[in-house]
Every structure is written in C-alpha cells, then in structure tokens.
Amino acid sequence: MWLLAALGTTFCFGINNSIFKWSATRGLSKISIQFFFYMVASLLITGYGLYRHQFHFSGWAVLLGAAAGILNANGNIQMTKAFEKGPAGITSTLIAMNAIIPVLASGILFPEPIPPLHWLGVILMVMAAAIVQFQPNRNNQVEYRTWLVRIALALLSIGSCAVILKITAFYQISFANYLLFFYSGGFVYLALRMMKQEIHLIEVKVGSMVGILSVIGFGCYLYALASGPASVVFPVISLNCLVVMGTGLLLFNEKIRWYQAIGILVALSGLVLTKI
Question: Does pTM top 0.90 for this prediction?
C-alpha cells in the first residue's frame, strides 16, 4: 500500500503541474488559481487537524510553515509563467532539479556529509540541465531567456521550500503544524495580491481542484513515508515530472528532440540518486 500511496502522490503533484500548464494556455490568472488552491487546502488541513487534535502551535512552526508557503506560491506562479514560454515536459524536468538545493544545503547547514551518490546525482542533473535546455535555431532570444529566468526563479523558490522542510524535520516540528501554516501563510500572502484581481468562476474551480489534489497528495506522501522505506518513496515521488511530460505530449502536442530525451533520462537518474 505504501508504494501505491507514493504513486498517488506522484500522480497528484504531476496532475497539478499539468493543470498549471493548461491554465497558462488558457490565459487564466495565475494568482487567482493559487489563491483558491491555498484557500481550499487551508480549510481541508485545518478541518483534518482539528478533528484529529494534531495541532500544537509554536513560533517556529508559524515562521517556517508560512515562509515555505509563500515561497511555494511564488514558485508555482513562476512555473506557470515558464509554461507559457516553453514545453511542459522540459520545463517540469528542469524545475524538478530543485532537489540540488536541499542536497547542498544539508551539507552546509546540518552536520550531514553529502554521500558520493548524491554528489553524482547533482553532477548528472547539472549536465542534464545544459543538454535539455539547449535549443539550436531558436528564433526568439528574448522568449528563450525569459523562459530560463522563470525556470530559475521557480527552481530556487521550490528548492528553498525543501530546505525549510528539512529544517522542520531536523527540529522535529509536527508535519501537521507545518502544513497548516504552509497553506494558511501562502493563503494570506496571496489574499494581499488578490486585492486588484477579478474573480472568474473557472479560476475558482481550477484552484479548488488543485487544492484538493495537493492535500490528497500530501496525505499519501505522509502515509508512504510512515509505512515504506524513504529510500524508495522519495525517488518515486520525485518522478512526478514524468506525468507532466506525458500530458505535454498527449494534450499539448509537444515535441521532444532526441538529445533532450537523453537529457531528461540523465536528469531523472540524477534526481533518483539524490533521493537515495
């Protein structure tokens, strides 16, 4: 069951990123979708935590959770903007390389040596990034550079979230408390940005769907970690970019060159190695 739960997380996270790509092709408001995503997720996690009596408030939980929620919201917005400029499969693979950040941060912030396999994974992902993003005969240098900048901003934001999650685990902060302030902190931040936004029903529906899938994904994630070996669970979950790649090929008729396919395989190999 733990493997099915891990696959469920992979599916939920991959579908959410695919929805972000779809919303980008429809010109929907990125901020509105994120706002309703965080609102629904906040309500669900609050109801669950109160029902199970799992909340134990602390200043660190508020600070770390809210910071991660804001970073993740910004990361998702930048990811959606990147989807507007480039193919979903390659974009999601490059952003998935944010795993490099917590690996390197663990060696700097915590008394943890970086294993040789993790170093190999980092090297492979850096090499793959150079291969995957390379586009000969590109016609629009401005669009290309904008795409790379959006990817870099999303990668840094989401990677920083992983570092904060590592800090909460190191100091044994309740994951339920972390998620509560993760979603509620992001919700408050997005509410401030929503003041000048018009609300459309389609954005409410899309954001709500993403919020539900996010909570289901995190629920499966916790169950998988509690029941199965982390050395298998983490690599399985990290492959959610394959879901995005599949939807890009099937729904958006995207093309992947042969060398990009090789780069993606190298990137996935490096990603798995950093999670072992």
Answer: no
